[in-house]
């Protein structure tokens, strides 16, 4: 798996519909700027950012089914949707961060 054994550098997803991390993922940081579908974390995500950027995910729906560990930086998960449950965190989806954790849900009306 990409980034499973050896950590990648900073990973930036500019725009994507559906993003799935199926297995262990390691990088300096993980940034998804925008999306129109679902981001699903089925494998553990580990980042070690020397700056404030740790894990930033923005999409219509965000599903955290495995742990997120940010030994450096923040964790920010933003879901923006008309759908209830736009941001879901499973029992196995523990979030550990060296800095702040932000969970943001934007309800789109109309």
From N to C, what is the helix and strand string? EEEEEEEEEEEE
Structural class: mainly beta
End-to-end Cα distance:
40 Å
Principal-axis shape: globular
Strand content: over 45%
The number of helices is: 0
Task: Assign a percent range to the helix content.
Answer: under 10%
Let me know the number of strands.
12
Q: Cα-atom Rg, whole angstroms? A: 13 Å
Oligomer: single chain
Q: Could you report the average pLDDT, rounded to the nearest whole number?
A: 91
Structure notes:
- With 110 residues, the protein is mostly beta strands.
- The protein is 0% helix and 54% strand.
- The protein contains no helices and twelve strands.
- Strands 1, 3, 5, 6, 8, 9, 11 and 12 form an eight-stranded parallel β-sheet that branches.
- It starts with 7 loop residues before the first strand and ends with a strand.
Topology:
Blueprint: E1 8-13, E2 19-21, E3 25-32, E4 38-41, E5 45-48, E6 55-59, E7 61-64, E8 68-72, E9 75-81, E10 87-89, E11 95-97, E12 101-107
Parallel strand pairs: 1-3, 2-4, 3-5, 3-6, 4-7, 5-8, 6-9, 7-10, 8-11, 9-12
A few lines on this structure:
The chain has 110 residues and is an all-beta fold.
What are the key terms here?
110 residues, 8-stranded parallel β-sheet, mainly beta
């Amino acid at each position: 798996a990409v980034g499973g054994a050896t950590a990648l550098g900073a990973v930036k997803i500019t725009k994507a519909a559906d993003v799935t991390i199926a297995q262990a993922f390691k990088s300096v940081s993980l940034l998804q700027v925008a999306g129109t579908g679902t981001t699903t974390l089925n494998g553990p995500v580990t980042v070690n950012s020397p700056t404030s950027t740790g894990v930033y995910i923005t999409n219509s729906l965000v599903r955290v089914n495995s742990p997120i560990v940010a030994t450096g930086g923040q964790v920010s998960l933003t879901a923006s949707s008309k759908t209830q449950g736009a941001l879901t965190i499973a029992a196995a989806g523990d979030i550990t961060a060296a800095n702040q954790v932000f969970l943001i849900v934007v309800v789109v009306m109309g």
